[in-house]
Structures are given as C-alpha cells and as structure tokens.
Amino acid sequence: MPKASKHLKASNLIGQVCECFDEIPYHRSNHCKNGIPFPNFAKSAFAMLHQKYDSLLSFDTDLADPILAHNLETLYHVQDQKVPSDTRMR
What we know:
By secondary structure, the protein is mostly helical. It has a domain at 36-90. It contains five helices and no strands. It is globular.
C-alpha cells in the first residue's frame, strides 16, 4: 500500500481554503463598524459549517468558550478573534 502524502492533513486543507478567503476582493465602502475584516466572515462561516453547528446562534453562543476562540484563530486563521455575530453573518 502506498504511503499517504504528509501534506494531506485537515489543517493543511483548511489553511488552503482560508488563503482563498484572504484573496476575495472587498468592494464595499462601508466597512463593518466593529472593525471585523471581510475574510473573517467567510472563515467564521466555514468554521461553523466544518464543525457542523446546527445554527448560527449556537455557534455564536459557544464563542464564549476560550478553546473555540483559540481554535478559530489557530486552525481557521480568524484574525484577532474578531468573529461576526450571528446577525452580521446572515
């Protein structure tokens, strides 16, 4: 049986997806008043779907957990733990 590629890891694949989110151009002139960068919206939504949350509200509620906040920054590359609320993500 051939060896699996050492680059085929979930963290590497998530990193590639997040790099693509960073390349999405943002053309709106009215930036988020909380200073949340546009890629954080896409990365947070991806993290919510990847972790199989039932709803935006349950994801938003669980953000109080410091472990989830740390994972968003380290695994999903959400900058400065600035995550949009469930209302803003809609």
